[in-house]
Amino acid sequence: MKIGVLISGSGTNLQAIIDSITQGIIKKSTIEVVVSNVKSAYGLERAKQAGIKAIYINSKEYNSREEYDKKIVEILKENGVELIILAGYLKWITPYFVNQYKNKILNIHPSLLPSFKGLHAIEKAYEYGVKMTGVTVHFVDESEDGGAIILQEGIRLDEGISLEKLEEQIHKVEHKLYPKAIEKFVTGKIKLEGRKVIVEK
């Protein structure tokens, strides 16, 4: 399956996906293109090092979010992309984009959704004093982090854990859970029934 990845930052989840494809954990798949809205995003360099097409698109050159998304969709379609992965992509996806790739856009979020949606989720959970948080991989729809949940993994917060240590634990889970969800998608083991996602073993 041909994959397109959207990033805004360092691209550690992108690297985990690249490594999983190389190691055969994600089968019969290639990343065709990586697109970023941030010129300095290190994820673009990670893509280049892996021999993957890396493209920066400046959103300020477009009059609206939809125009910007139309450009991204154009690039994805030119590269034959069938599945889109958001990996630390910090721009809101417009309804136009969602409808072009309905149920073919995945995102990873550093909390157990529907708790702590939006930015700074790890910090929000930590400050709230929860005893458990975690990671969610979900389909992207037109809402904020509200798409159907594919996989989740919980993390218990030990007494006295620092925010930095929790972030480290969350990222470690992300780097395993995202490739696992992608592998399930590309091998046809994910079935969507309304809001519920049936994941075959």
From TrEMBL:
Keyword tags: Purine biosynthesis, Transferase
GO MF term list: phosphoribosylglycinamide formyltransferase activity
Any Gene Ontology CC annotation: cytosol
EC number: 2.1.2.2
NCBIfam families in alphabetical order: PurN (TIGR00639)
HAMAP family according to UniProt: PurN
PANTHER family (UniProt xref): PHOSPHORIBOSYLGLYCINAMIDE FORMYLTRANSFERASE
Protein name per its UniProtKB record: Phosphoribosylglycinamide formyltransferase
Gene source species: Haliovirga abyssi
